[in-house]
Design goal:
413 residues; alpha/beta; Rossmann fold; 2 domains; five-stranded parallel β-sheet; 17 helices; 13 strands; globular
Length: 413
């Protein structure tokens, strides 16, 4: 456990600098407690905490007047506590287009989907997920994984690459800076459980007027148990003992709070009988362990959960990495009906080219483990950049033409 609480550089900081150097306002979204405020403060001249009643009062009374008179860039933290501030920022930007005026941070997406949202065309959005392992290991400036694949670079294995136990320990650390960097053992588990309590009770209550947090808790536990799965809605709502309408409302609530994600299916007219259901993820695997009250030993003893947990861990690294990637990957999953072919993650990169990724809990990879990647390569020819089987072993090797086996640790090497 670290004793000093030094700041760890985040990989999106260069994007923040570039955006504020040319545009007037930037909105940083992300799950609660992922370090948005701490990072944004490094780029602001003034910080206003709208979750503090004494600071929020003037913005609730007259947000336009409240914005005037502060040194810029102005950071408006937790904008959702005073949503009227978005309209004030819009009007201020409309009247003065100078670059680097406003930074806004928040941990919900709830009101941002409307076509009449006041920030349209004025605020650029940037998503900041939990800390990646690269960031935790002081490698925030390392080249994004997808860019290395697109560029045909050799994948390097970092020194002391973990074994499967090591990967479970890294995943349980979480991407929440306080838990990952400064806590360990039982205090860390208690912090994660407290985080879930906050999300599933107070945050959910404020966002949707929830009246039965215990049912939401049961639903999230079912979600966690099936993270990285493609399944019918019925599985979740029957496991939680709720009806379909309630389940859909709960899922949208958790998506808005940015603790779960629905990964869309990849589709093509060239492929038949593709499953059109999303693949569902808990965005941080530590929340899976927290919801199910399991440690790395408990996860290791459940073969089905072990695979889902590692898949969720890899997805968390790639999701955050994609934000800063020059190849601008969009992540999907691919599955045919009856399970004939399925691929954990498909990234569509520049020019609609494809990178396919499988996640394997084992340390040895053979041709059978890569057969779905071989199939996709043969279907799409030159459009297929590469396939990678990410595993828990220690070496990189070629399985087939344009298909590699590589340790999971190459994500942050």
């Amino acid at each position: 456990m670290r004793q000093s609480q030094e700041y760890k550089q985040r990989s999106i900081e260069e994007i923040i600098r570039q955006t504020l150097s040319q545009l007037p306002a930037l909105l940083i979204l992300g799950p609660r407690a992922t370090g948005k405020t701490t990072t944004a403060m490094r780029h602001a001249a003034t910080t206003i905490r709208l979750d503090r009643p004494e600071e929020a009062a003037i913005f609730q009374a007259d947000p336009d007047a409240a914005l005037r008179g502060f040194d810029e860039p102005i950071l408006l933290d937790e904008w959702q506590e005073v949503p009227e501030v978005l309209g004030a920022v819009k009007r201020a930007v409309d009247s003065d287009h100078r670059a680097g005026r406003y930074l806004l941070t928040g941990s919900v997406r709830d009101d941002l989907q409307s076509p009449t949202w006041p920030g349209t065309g004025r605020l650029v959005r940037l998503t900041m997920y939990g800390m990646t392992i690269a960031e935790q290991f002081d490698r925030a400036d390392s080249s994004p994984f997808m860019d290395r694949i697109v560029g045909g670079e050799t994948l390097e294995v970092p020194p002391n690459t973990p074994d499967i136990r090591g990967y479970l320990e890294l995943a349980i650390r979480s991407g929440f800076p306080r838990a990952a960097l400064w806590l360990s053992g039982r205090p860390r588990a208690q912090w994660i459980e407290g985080y879930l309590e906050q999300i599933l009770t107070r945050d959910a209550l404020e966002l949707r007027g929830l009246r039965d947090p215990e049912r939401l808790r049961r639903y999230f536990e079912a979600y966690a148990l099936n993270s990285a799965g493609v399944f019918e809605d019925r599985m979740l709502y029957e496991a939680a003992g709720i009806d379909r309408k309630t389940a859909l409302a709960y899922e949208q609530l958790l998506v808005n709070l940015m603790v779960v994600e629905r990964l869309p299916p990849w589709t093509s007219n060239r492929l038949k009988r593709l499953v059109r259901s999303p693949k569902r993820y808990v965005v941080d695997p530590a929340l899976i362990a927290g919801a199910l009250q399991l440690d790395d030993q408990g996860i290791a003893r459940d073969g089905n959960l072990l695979g889902r947990f590692l898949d969720s861990f890899v997805a968390a690294q790639l999701r955050a990495d994609a934000v800063r990637s020059k190849s601008r990957p969009r992540l999907y999953h691919l599955r045919q009906r009856e399970g004939r072919h399925e691929i954990d993650l498909v990234a569509e990169v520049e020019g609609n080219r494809l990178i396919a990724i499988e996640v394997k809990a084992g340390a040895v990879v053979n041709h059978e483990d890569a057969k779905h990647l071989v199939w996709l390569r043969d279907e799409f020819g030159d459009r297929f950049v590469a396939g990678v089987v990410l595993h828990t072993g220690a070496r990189v090797h070629e399985v087939d033409h344009r298909i590699l086996a590589a340790p999971i640790s190459t994500l942050w090497a």
